[in-house]
Structure formats: structure tokens, C-alpha cells
Specification:
Pfam families: Epimerase_2. The protein is an alpha/beta fold and about 300 residues long. The protein is built from 13 helices and 10 strands.
Amino acid sequence: MDQILGNTIGGFSRFVHDVKPDLIVIHGDRLEALAGASVGALAGITVAHIEGGEVSGTVDESIRHAVSKLSHLHLVANSEAALRLRQLGEEEERIHIIGSPEIDVMLSSDLPSLDEVRHRYEIPFDHYAIGIFHPVTTELGSLAKQVEAYIEALVASKKNYVLIYPNNDVGSSVIFDRLIGLISSQSFKLYPSLRFEYFLTLLRNAQFIIGNSSVGVREAPVYGVPSVDIGSRQRHRGTAASILKCKPERDSIDAAIIQVSRMGRCPPSLSNGSGHSRDSFLNLLRREVPWHVSLQKHFQPYQPDSGQ
């Protein structure tokens, strides 16, 4: 991961020096975001970070907070994220609540139909769940055991699953090698990735989602789709009633699948926005704030009694 970061910084630095942008907009907690924020901060270019202030409990959280400290503007999903940034010493005037951009797409009326998605990706199931499992880079020693428990529980449930490959973090090959063994099974369809709009339609119509992806604790609740969140990767994220937490152990996952299968649809949760993030962002761009924000940041001690 460190080599990927170094290469990304080098490539993006060359691009930025050629293009000379006035503003760099980055999103989330991936290495690409850290590279973009690093280049922008060191090159004296305003950096706007979308969805800072989130928590997860993995190295991704550390990356996200590092990105926030390198950024000059914060476009956050909700008041809880804004509070965390103030606790990190960020100045209040730099923080703007716009909601999560993904929800704009999720609530769009232009998503493809389920029939279109099933035809495009040759999905034969009328009823299915979605599975996404990523490595936790601080738990590589137990990863193989966790993956084995996860796969065995899915197989034993005798349900149909659409499975998405893991991300490219360290340890992903352990998961990938185990998933490949399911290719010949009629109960599983495996995909390296899906177009976001098509994936949303699958998610909206799924019986549930299971794994440790942020989709289970952020996107799924928007549709009221129940989710099983396994292990520590999303430990500090997700409070919706549709989310079941379980240990990365076979018995715990088995029990969670039984429970989630009985839940049905839950009330939608819009704690991260109501589908108007784009408008909020555009309104901000039309103001002077993004174009005249100071590049010299000052640590602002958090004072809860002051109304901050």
C-alpha cells in the first residue's frame, strides 16, 4: 500500500503541475484521497474533502483523518461528522454539511430496472442476497479463519448470493482465492465490480447484504435493506435498526443470517442526507468561500461549552 501511495503521489503531482487547478476535490478514505490531499497541501492548492469526519475502526479511519488535516474545506455528510472534525481542531468556518453524494444517486428516479440489471450481468436469481468482504489490514493473522467462517456460513444458508470481489488492500488475495472456489456453484454469482447505478438497483432489491463493507452500514439503510455487519471493519459506523452486528465466527454468522432472513424491509434511514448534496455543493461553489479560503490552517481547540 505504501508503494501504491508513493506512485500515486508522483503521478498526481506531475498532473497538477501541468494543469494548475484552482481546487482539488477528493472523497473518502482511500490512498488516492491521501495522495490528492498531500499534493494539494504541499503545492499550495485548495483541497476540498468530501465525507471527512467518519469513523470505522480500521487504518482507513486514520487515512481519512489525515486527509482532513491536509484539506482546507470539509464537505461532510452530517452533524456528527462535523463535530468530529471540530474535535480534530478544524476551524468551524471550514466545515460545511452537504450530505453524502451517493444518496443523490441512490434516490434518483433514473436507476436501471432490476430486469435490465439481471440481463446485463446474467443474474438468474429471483431472490438473492449480496455479499462483500474486505480484508482488515490490522487483522491479517486471523483473516483466513474469518474468510473461511464467512464462506462456510453462506454456503450452509442455501441462499442465492451475488458476491463482489474485495478491494485491493493487503490480504485481498486470501479472500479472492477462497471466492474463486464458488464459481461453479449455482447459488453464487461473482463479479470483480459492478457499475454503481446497477449495483444500487441490486442492493435496493436484495433480501439483505452481508460482509464488512461500508455499503452495509451506509447505503443499505437508505433503502431499508437489512444488513449483517461482520467483525471490526465498520465497528464504529452504523446505528440504523436494519444493521445486525456479529463476530467473524461461524456460529455468530449463522445466527445472524437466520435473524436477518426474518427481518424484512426496515424503515429507511436518511441520517447521511436526503438526496440534495449536489445542490448544496453547487451553492457552495458559487460563493466566494471555496476560492478565497486561507491555505494557512490554525488548530482550533474544541470547546463543547462554547456551542461548537
